[in-house]
Amino acid sequence: QVQLVESGGGLVQAGGSLRLSCAASGTTFAINVEGWYRQAPGKQRELVAEITGRGITKYADSVKGRFTISRDIANDTLYLQMNGLKAEDTAVYYCNALIMGNAYWGQGTQVTVSE
Predict the structure, then answer these.
(1) Is the dihedral of CA 81, 87, 9, 28 positive or negative?
(2) Would 35 disulfide with which of 3, 50, 73, 87, CB 3.0-4.6 Å?
(3) Are 6 and 77 in contact (CB under 8 A)?
(4) Using CA atoms, how far apart are residues 3 and 39, in angstroms rounded to an integer?
(5) Greatest CA span in the chain, whole angstroms?
């Protein structure tokens, strides 16, 4: 089992930056893939970025070149650096971890981008 706690969300103007953090605890050594998802009002949850155990990253087309996923293995923390934020990035952002096909989720953190 893994517990995930996100932080770092907030209100920012368009063009600004935020860094989200996700602190993991529990059987973190068993995590296969970690990622960030987001869900805007009235929309389905979507993948933003993910990173594998080998450090291979993948990004949604809408955030490529603006967002960067990274992790601090020693401290079991996952990050999402978000630059050049746009109004359409407004959503609740969730941290996700996959262990042997089982998905674990954090509680989410709100990111609001004003025009």
Answers:
(1) negative
(2) 50
(3) no
(4) 20
(5) 41
Q: Which amino acid is at 14?
A: A
Q: Which residue has the tokens 């293995």?
A: 73
Distances 36 to 28, 109, 115 between C-alpha atoms, Å? 16, 11, 23
DSSP-derived 3-state class of residue 42: coil
* Cβ neighbours around 63 below 10 Å, total: 22
Residue holding tokens 């368009």?
A: 14
Per-residue pLDDT of the chain (115 residues; tens, 9 = 90+): 899 999 999 999 999 999 999 999 998 888 899 999 999 999 999 999 999 999 999 999 999 999 999 999 999 999 999 999 999 999 999 999 999 989 999 999 999 999 9
